[in-house]
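Here is one chain, start to finish.
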Amino acid sequence: MRWFISLLVSFAILTLALMTISAQTQSPSAKPPETIYLLKPAHIFDGESAQLHNDWVVLVRGEKIEAVGPANEIKAPAEAKVIDLPGMTLMPGLIDAHSHILLHPYSETVWNDQVAREPLSLRVARATNHLRNTLLAGFTTLRDLGTEGAGYADVGLKQAVNQGIIPGPRLVVATRAIVATGSYGPKGFAPEWTVPQGAEEASGADELTCRARSDRQRG
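Its structure:
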């Protein structure tokens, strides 16, 4: 278990470093330059074998991994920037296919209060920390399944990551999740009050189509 934790942390730190380098060398609208890196860690876990590989290297061109394998078999171009990573282990980035970056543990604040009482700015600040910590845990892609009352804040966070403003994994966002009318919350308020819901309500094919098209346009 100790080696696995070390492996995750090592990969996440490297990913964060490469993202920082990329953000510093390009404007938000510029296409990433084809910089070439040759990564030389102590070990590599490729996800296919249970064994760690020693004396392997990783060749990265731009934002893509071009080759992985024994150091004596990978031919790096002369202009490649060599990054030595002694004592570190690299592995493929992990993917979380069901996340909610704009929520935090219900033991801290119950769901109703997060959705109905916490300011959007506070929730975005928390989410910024969540993204950084998730990246440092080794996750390089998140599929976020709804903002739970925070509107389209996930789209802005995705743009902030893409532009190098904040560190975080690649985001696939759903914006306002669609639910059946009357099925969601927050609940428990007096009936004369119309309380904003944690998801977007829709009933019937026409409403579903309208909601989906609206969310797709914003996302």
